[in-house]
Description:
The complex is a heterodimer of chains A (239) and B (468). Chain A is 54% helix and 9% strand. With 239 residues, chain A is α/β, with parallel strands linked by helices. In chain A, the strands form 2 sheets. A 4-stranded parallel sheet of chain A has the order 4-3-5-6, with helices on both faces. In chain A, strands 1-2 form a two-stranded parallel sheet. The longest helix of chain A is centred in the middle third of the chain and has 18 residues, at 72-89. With 468 residues, chain B is an alpha/beta fold. Chain B is built from 23 helices and 10 strands. Chain B has helices spanning 4-12, 15-37, 42-58, 60-73, 84-97, 109-113, 116-122, 132-139, 156-170, 182-199, 225-231, 249-263, 296-300, 316-320, 322-327, 338-349, 355-359, 369-373, 380-394, 402-415, 417-426, 429-443, 456-463; strands at residues 77-81, 102-105, 126-129, 202-205, 209-211, 216-221, 235-241, 245-246, 271-275, 286-292. In chain B, the strands form 2 sheets. Chain B has a 6-stranded parallel sheet, with helices on both faces. The chains are: A alpha/beta (239), B alpha/beta (468). Chains A and B meet through helix 1, helix 2, helix 3, helix 4 and helix 8 of A and helix 1, helix 15, helix 18, helix 19 and helix 20 of B.
Amino acid sequence: MVTCINDALVPQTGRAVVTLLRRLGVDVDFPEGQTCCGQPMVNTGYLDEAVPVVRTFVRAFEGYDAVVTPSGSCAGCARHQHAIVARRSDDPAFVAAVEETAPKVFELSEFLVDVLGVEDVGASFPHRVTYHPTCHSLRMLGVGDRPLRLLRAVRGIDLVELPGAEQCCGFGGTFAVKNADTSVAMGADKARHVRSTGAEVLVAGDSSCLMHVGGLLSRERAGVRVMHLAEVLAAQEGT
Amino acid sequence: MPPFPEAARIALANTQLRTNLAHATATIRDKRARVVAEVDDWEELRTAGAATKDRVLLDLDTHLVRLEESLIRAGATVHWARDAEEACRIVADVAKAHHVDEVVKVKSMATQEIGLNEALAQEGISAWETDLAELIVQLGDDLPSHILVPAIHRNRAEIREIFLAGMARAGRPAPEGLDDEPAHLAEAARLHLREKFLRAEVAVSGANFAVAETGTLVVVESEGNGRMCLTLPQVLVSVVGIEKVVPTWADLDVFLQLLPRSSTGERMNPFTSTWTGVTPGDGPQEVHVVLLDNGRTRALADEVGRQALRCIRCSACLNVCPVYERTGGHAYGSVYPGPIGAILNPLLRGVGVDDQVDSLPYASSLCGACYDVCPVKIDIPSVLVDLRAQVVDAHRGGVPRPEAVAMKAAAATFRRPGLLRAAERLTRPGLAVVRRVGASAWTGARDLPPAPKESFRAWWKRTDGGRS
């Protein structure tokens, strides 16, 4: 599942997922009936509006063994919040469909480590990198250190610890615009911590958080790139 | 109070406040993490705490009646208060019956919630706060900013100024030549308060817990001021939220382990005071207990939100909240700030009538740090999302707000992939949502990523999924 943000704004992340999974021998498809997981509506409180979006999601992914998405946030929404939306519809068939789909949805690092059983994905990325564990990956899904285990196995990587890593970057979906000042204050602290590491690249498992922190780093002309975990794992520089 | 985003903007501009908060929350956060890590069965304790509270809430009426019977048997007078006004009137009537023009108070969230000090002032009765931090707040003509550390937003230089300027007006003046050494500041407060303790005939308290089996009220505190209030005056009035009841002393055991580690990062709190009605010749000879609803039954009726009534006011959620850390407590416009305040206020007061209350469920990035530390496992992020839905639903039917228009438009695009494809060709739908809700709110401080040449969807179609 390519998230709506990946699809429209950072399509290179989706392409990296395809490259990476194919390299690991997975039969990858992109059902074109998919759109969005519905999280922007759910988390802002528009549950009625989310109903058709979640229906679209469930319909698009029927019949697949696993739904892999490069977003802890979207995976978290599918696994924990789709049921709330389905119950709202009073449609038992929809509730059942959600119950069947939700456990098949995996955030990328979960799928690689837990389902495929790999930590070394054959990537090579000779750069100084720091990693931000996004809140929904960390707390809603509990991916733990899976992304770090994957990154540590990347050849040539210089992985440096991010101070205050587990604190939220301040994106928070519509929070980023509804409470823009607070969001920016949180993001600015995150950007400061990123700069303090001397890393060339900030890596995370959610493009939305990267868009927020990356937007601040770019405005500050910090010279730090942001990249999705999938892009680093797909990279085979100098090999 | 203005809605949260506005109040937050004002707080964010106060750099001293942000420095004070960042320092204080980081300190308590680290302390808490250290002492929690020492307890092997912490998760089991949390589960037990949550389960006990849930059990009480499901049969609240039975436990409350039992509490009332025990209290009366022990010599206390029990009052029931539906709302703030009733509760304040009961306390004022007790004070007036004893012809006093002042009362001493042990720090209590419930009495702050009902605005007791202001109500007593209307009746010509001064209420003196005796908790050190509450004293700082009161003398500084300020509002509390934290559940446990009401003066967290002040540093010691500011506290010295407040003591020098305010103590003389309220009683014994600050010692001459007072500096900002913590020990000297504490001694100044001690001398100032001692005079009030010895003078007061009526004391007002809250309670952390009320044990139904014996009619015992429990106050946990760190300074001993609570014990002074509970033992010295002849008359004691305790204002207790109805959710504070626990069935037995055995149940209390779990909470006395959970609370100090979660709140102050201590293994055990310095003072635990328990009192049961009246004991002839020892302590207050007239004891009143006001059992306060003030929206609690409303919260209880909320299927998702009722878990907020498990809250034991430890404030662990405040200390880990990245939003609270930047904005402080005043931005929440309530005595319950931070993540718990963001859900408790709408639950107690109801949504759809007040913009300030309706703004609170959105005062969170939903990062979930609060849920991780909550000693009674309140799933604050889920309650926030549910309350957001209640806010949205309460506003359906009228003239739709820009955000509602944007959400409907986005949902309409997302319900059909064909429409999304078309939209991607024309605009960038993710940005369309952002723009509609407020593009300047994003681009004021953050760049947007450059527009990609083609969407993933278009790439997949053009290249047959990267195969050609």
